[in-house]
Amino acid sequence: MRRTFLLVMSAFVIVSCSKGSRSAGKPGSRGELIAAEKSKSFLAERPYGMVAIPGGSFVMGNADQDMTDTPEKAMLKTVTVSSFFMDETEVTNGEYRVFVKYVRDSIARTLLAEAAGDGSGTGIGNYAYLSKKSGNATPYDEFIESHGGRDGYDQSKRLDWSEPLYWNTSQYPDVQYAEIMESMYIPKAERINNERVIDARKLRYAYEWEDIESAVKNRERNISYLKKESIAVYPDTTVWLRDFNYAYNEPLFNQYFWHSAYSNYPVVGVTWDQARAYCNFKSKLKSDYNESLKKKKQKPMNFRLPTEAEWEYAAKGGRANATYPWGGPYLVDDRGCYLANFKPKRGNYIEDEKKGTYMYTAPVKKFGRNDFGLYDMAGNVAEWTESPYNNATYQFSSTLNPSLSNQAYREVKKSVRGGSWKDVGYLLMTGNRDWERKDSARSYIGFRTVQDIPEGSAKFKKRTN
């Protein structure tokens, strides 16, 4: 027993007096607690197509004459918002089509990968999951697969996006490939004029998001606050007919979203949920790119819809009393040209082509930008915000970054801002409020995205491309 005690004491002395011992902090810190990493100035990189909106304070609300005496007008309130990036234009048809095509391709690739099995052979075998292909499985892939995978994203089921997809029937590599690809189209019995088109009902985007506000309220954080969404992403093109029962808008119904002539026009027919799904996709696209780099970058901030306060602040362009995004109280410039796309007179949607008016929506960037560099913050299409709508919002919301995000997905009414091509000039004012049900799609409502800028960012980094 005594011998055992002496051995233990000897080991203690050896460990305690070892010259190789180190402090828990940075080597050579003489026992002081010093961070291992040096503090570096963080440069927020400006995403493509976005502009930096510097934080500041402004008077929120409609300070101009309220000719309609609507309850949307609330008590004026001085609030402060943090810096953020914002899309310089509304999301266009061309940009949204990238989202739709990604959903289409990912669904097709998943069906092909499931059918490809272990990836043996040619043809459909080329579309097997990366982990099934020889030399691509990592130890982590093997571990996950041996445990039956896991809920949510499965690392072992990564798709091989380097393998090209063939949508032309003459290029189908084998019969099994043809069978799977044909399942993406509307069944023959349901086709109109036997037209072979993708079944938009199958284009659903699945993603997860955390209800952080509810978790914080209950002082806990676990998987029960994880919300799973599966959103149909294709825009509702019937809005051009449903919104105007007694008008001939069939050409827009047939062509507005998919035709190349409208690529640079703002997307419409998108619900609030679809706009949020697009934001998630945009965040995923950037995050996946950063993960693919050998030298991984800082995890990017997520894209989202702007809050009502952020939208109004951005629309004013830094001006103290901006009735419209361009400042002054007039809708025309000194040459008599209109400064936004709206309905100038009753029944007269296109008063004079020389004055720059459009019958429906206009291509983005056709009208001047405000002092922040944002286009079409008035007119063209109204825009979804993240905020739920309430007449009393201004009265009970915070004066610092006003937001009701903990109620955003629960409330049916959502705040819509900016006015549209079908509205009169009064509805284009920066302080004017409107709303729509989140499950409604309209021919005059679109959206744009924002991205937070960390408060610790030293300055904004300009893109080199």
From TrEMBL:
Residues covered by the Sulfatase-modifying factor enzyme-like domain: 49-450
Main EC class the enzyme belongs to: transferase
Protein EC: 2.7.11.1
Keyword Transferase set for record: yes
Keyword line: Kinase, Transferase
An annotated Gene Ontology molecular function: protein serine/threonine kinase activity
Signal sequence annotation: none
Keyword Kinase: yes
Pfam families xref list: FGE-sulfatase
Name used for this protein in its record: Serine/threonine-protein kinase pkn1
Organism: Chryseobacterium taklimakanense
